[in-house]
């Protein structure tokens, strides 16, 4: 057995709705099934989803304050007022800033931009920056991807006589800022039909209103910011991204070309993964380590040399960011495991951590521990701590933090992510409060869930079916890449790969068809899978192209084996070869004292000596692992251990100090010859002449000694100081009445069945003794 890392939830869908949708739209049945699972059940909704590019953008004037905002901006442009775009330092923020800059320049304005420094100013509006704007003569400030939490700062700007237009998408607090206009898709009482735009999406809507039509040339920026900000790729976001990726593939932005060259990506092949893994992280890296201005300059430049220089600088920052993240994540994990193992919400803080990367670190810890995580950077001089939070399903981080406003003077965010600043003295209080608030969550909610879209056989997976999945792209939040379940597949090959042997490459088969699969970060699983195990796999399908040959491939996210597993380590003499593959929590059993003495000092696990049936019940290995180091003298002892425990895995080593001892049993004709020999000789000195007799008969000396012992136990002979003599009166008895004969016969049988049997026969032997069914039971499907 191999337990999955996550709860597997196989999504159900209505067969009737699926068939109806497939027929109406003439699409494959499994595509229709995936649509129904996403809540898209009507023909109209499905057609809109599949053919998003044919849809139109919503009217931007559906935002209540849009008309006011447009009129004020037009006034500023016409009168030559100084306009400041106040942005944010992440990828959403810098693309939002670039969209607004491009739009105002197109209208004839000469706007400037200002992005606060993450380290000295923090997220969102700050009074110092707003006072600076007023001093510099700006009469209009437009925020992008921030501003909704700046209640105090808005009042300051208003008192200074500067108009403020806020465009934002973050969660609004109980009090809204006093701004000239607020463009926000998700305000209470709002009338805009789509409420989940990213910051760049809101900026794009303002650009749409100002220009009188959607600015197609800015869709590449809109797609980048939307994907990077991890907002749901449904509704208008899907339209922005689908059209935006098309624009990105044809983009002539010199900055994007230069940046993608650094990641060896091709802009004409760009998709959502290109943005998520190549563009987004690099744009984010700038603001995480320094001022974000170079990211905006990269997106706005028309000069190839400038673009190349900026791309090199940004790529170097991204590499530095990766190194810093790895170091902080390691420290944070050690703190969590040492001090807060039982906490439901992990709040970890330390002086010296880089506040620019703590959001990434928090994500890594959520991935490892699957608990809400807050990473804080302490500043003893100011007495404050600044950080980021990442959450899990069932714990709305923004709402939970909102219950702590009294000790959180500055915070904002979403249900799954947030940023905050608080006094160091309140860290312990926040930790206590959030852990108490998390008590309402069940234990199961702290086990990650894998939602499975469809079950498929290897025979059903081909290049055509995988290509059809692209009908659902672009994939992202609330429209994830479909996860496929493949059940009870056989292993064709399995091995560890990678410099650290930390990845798993395998090929699975059914009949004569195979499917290649790779599981990143799961290299250790190779040691936990028996060669004949049948696997259940979940993962995402893709097409692997190598040397112009295309093949289906599965990116595995989780693996399970539903039946018990046997690992055959018989005959591997050197413990160093098999000991590292044994799980740390294994129950290691020796039946003989000499085996115990041999292995106990060299194995990391404690060896338990089971030398009687009374001790067989002393261990409890249900659903764990048992390692049998040797063979008992009596099969009943081994069977007693199995009766008391039904482990998920058995490792069979069955070490014998002298395996030749049990290699053969003298035949009855050998006993008859030896008996006749003794009858003729009357007496025979075993010590003096035994070896010569053994050589003459091609026996071993052990065979002579064994037959002598059997005769002695049957009262056929007496043995005195090495002399064996036949008794005068001998009653007819069967050899099987001798305890030594019984023991040797039994041991020979046990050795034959367990030590020299085939893998399949050994597995069958265990199953018969344990009463295991050869058919695995279906694991519980979590909901």
Detailed description of the structure:
By secondary structure, the chain is α/β, with parallel strands linked by helices. Helix content is 39%, strand content 19%. The protein contains 26 helices and 26 strands. The strands form six sheets. It has a five-stranded parallel sheet, sandwiched between helices. The longest helix is centred in the middle third of the chain and has 36 residues, at 304-339.
Write the layout of secondary structure elements.
Layout: E1 7-10, H1 15-25, H2 29-37, H3 43-50, H4 66-78, E2 83-86, H5 91-106, E3 112-114, H6 127-135, E4 140-144, H7 151-159, E5 163-167, E6 181-183, H8 199-211, H9 219-228, H10 235-249, H11 254-262, H12 272-289, H13 293-300, H14 304-339, E7 346-351, H15 358-369, E8 373-379, E9 384-390, H16 397-402, E10 410-413, E11 417-423, H17 427-437, E12 449-452, E13 454-455, H18 463-468, E14 484-497, E15 503-510, E16 513-519, E17 535-546, E18 549-560, E19 565-568, H19 575-578, E20 587-590, H20 593-599, E21 607-609, E22 625-630, H21 635-644, E23 649-655, H22 668-681, E24 683-685, H23 686-697, H24 701-713, E25 717-720, E26 723-726, H25 739-755, H26 759-770
Parallel strand pairs: 1-12, 2-3, 2-4, 4-5, 5-6, 7-8, 13-14, 16-18, 19-23, 20-21, 20-22, 22-23
Antiparallel strand pairs: 8-9, 9-11, 10-11, 14-15, 14-17, 15-16, 17-18, 24-26, 25-26
């Amino acid at each position: 057995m191999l337990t999955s890392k996550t709860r597997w939830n196989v999504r159900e869908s209505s067969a009737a709705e699926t068939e109806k949708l497939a027929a109406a739209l003439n699409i494959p049945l499994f595509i229709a099934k995936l649509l129904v699972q996403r809540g898209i059940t009507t023909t109209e909704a499905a057609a809109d989803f599949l053919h998003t590019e044919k849809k139109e953008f919503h009217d931007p004037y559906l935002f209540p304050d849009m008309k006011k905002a447009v009129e004020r901006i037009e006034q500023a442009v016409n009168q030559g007022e100084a306009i400041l775009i106040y942005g944010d330092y992440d990828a959403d923020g810098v693309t939002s800033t670039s969209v607004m800059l491009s739009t105002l320049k197109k209208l004839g304005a000469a706007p400037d931009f200002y992005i606060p420094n993450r380290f000295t100013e923090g997220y969102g509006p700050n009074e110092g920056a707003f006072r600076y704007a007023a001093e510099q003569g700006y009469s209009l400030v437009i925020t992008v991807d921030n501003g909704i939490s700046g209640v105090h700062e808005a009042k300051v700007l208003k008192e200074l006589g500067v108009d403020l237009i806020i465009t934002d998408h973050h969660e609004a607090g109980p009090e809204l800022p006093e701004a000239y206009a607020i463009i926000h898709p998700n305000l209470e009482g709002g009338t805009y039909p789509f409420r989940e735009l990213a910051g760049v999406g809101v900026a794009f809507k303002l650009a749409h209103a100002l220009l009188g039509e959607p600015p197609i040339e800015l869709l590449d920026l809109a797609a980048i910011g939307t994907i990077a900000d991890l907002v749901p790729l449904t509704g208008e976001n899907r339209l922005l991204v689908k059209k935006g990726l098309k624009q990105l593939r044809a983009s002539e932005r010199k900055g994007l070309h230069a940046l993608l060259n650094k990641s060896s990506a091709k802009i004409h092949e760009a998709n959502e993964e290109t943005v998520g893994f190549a563009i987004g992280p690099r744009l984010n890296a700038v603001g995480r380590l320094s001022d974000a201005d170079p990211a905006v300059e990269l997106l706005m430049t028309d000069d190839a040399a400038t673009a190349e220089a900026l791309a090199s600088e940004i790529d170097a920052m991204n590499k530095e960011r990766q190194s810093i993240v790895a170091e902080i994540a390691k420290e944070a994990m050690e703190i969590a495991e040492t001090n807060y193992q039982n906490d439901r919400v992990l709040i970890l803080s330390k002086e010296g951590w880089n506040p620019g990367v703590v959001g990434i670190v928090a994500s890594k810890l959520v991935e490892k521990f699957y608990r809400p995580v807050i990473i804080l950077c302490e500043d003893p001089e100011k007495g404050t701590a600044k950080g980021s939070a990442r959450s899990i399903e069932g714990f709305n981080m923004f709402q939970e933090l909102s219950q702590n406003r009294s000790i959180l003077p500055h915070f904002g965010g979403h249900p799954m992510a947030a940023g905050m600043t608080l006094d160091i003295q309140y860290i312990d209080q926040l930790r206590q409060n959030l852990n108490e608030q998390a008590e309402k969550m069940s234990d199961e909610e702290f086990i990650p869930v894998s939602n499975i879209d469809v079950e498929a056989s290897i025979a059903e997976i081909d290049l055509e079916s995988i290509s059809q999945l692209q009908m659902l792209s672009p994939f992202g939040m609330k429209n994830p890449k479909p996860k496929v379940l493949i059940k009870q597949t056989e292993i064709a090959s399995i091995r560890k790969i990678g410099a650290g042997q930390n990845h798993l490459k395998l090929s699975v088969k059914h009949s004569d068809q195979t499917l290649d699969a790779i599981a990143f970060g799961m290299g250790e699983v190779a040691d936990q899978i028996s060669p004949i195990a049948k696997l259940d796999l979940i993962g995402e399908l893709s097409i692997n192209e190598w040397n112009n040959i295309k093949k289906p491939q599965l990116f595995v996210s989780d693996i399970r084996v539903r039946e018990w597993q046997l690992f055959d380590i018989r005959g591997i003499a050197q413990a160093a070869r098999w000991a590292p593959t044994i799980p740390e929590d294994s129950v290691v059993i020796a039946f003989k004292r000499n085996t115990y003495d041999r292995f106990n000092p060299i194995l990391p696990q404690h060896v338990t000596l089971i030398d009687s049936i009374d001790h067989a019940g002393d261990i409890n290995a249900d659903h764990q692992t048992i390692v049998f180091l040797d063979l008992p003298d009596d099969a009943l002892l081994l069977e007693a251990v199995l009766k008391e425990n039904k482990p998920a895995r058995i490792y069979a080593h069955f070490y014998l100090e002298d395996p030749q001892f049990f290699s053969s049993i003298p035949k009855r004709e050998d006993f008859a010859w030896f008996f006749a020999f003794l009858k003729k000789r009357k007496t025979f000195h075993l010590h003096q002449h035994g070896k010569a007799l053994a050589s003459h008969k091609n026996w071993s000396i052990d065979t002579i000694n064994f037959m002598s012992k059997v005769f002695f136990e049957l009262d056929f002979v007496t043995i005195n100081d090495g002399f064996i003599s036949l008794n005068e009166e001998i009653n007819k008895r069967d050899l099987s009445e001798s305890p030594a004969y019984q023991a040797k016969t039994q041991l020979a049988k046990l050795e034959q069945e367990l030590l020299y049997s085939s893998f399949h026969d050994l597995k069958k032997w265990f199953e018969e003794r344990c009463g295991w069914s050869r058919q695995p039971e279906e694991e519980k499907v979590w909901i």
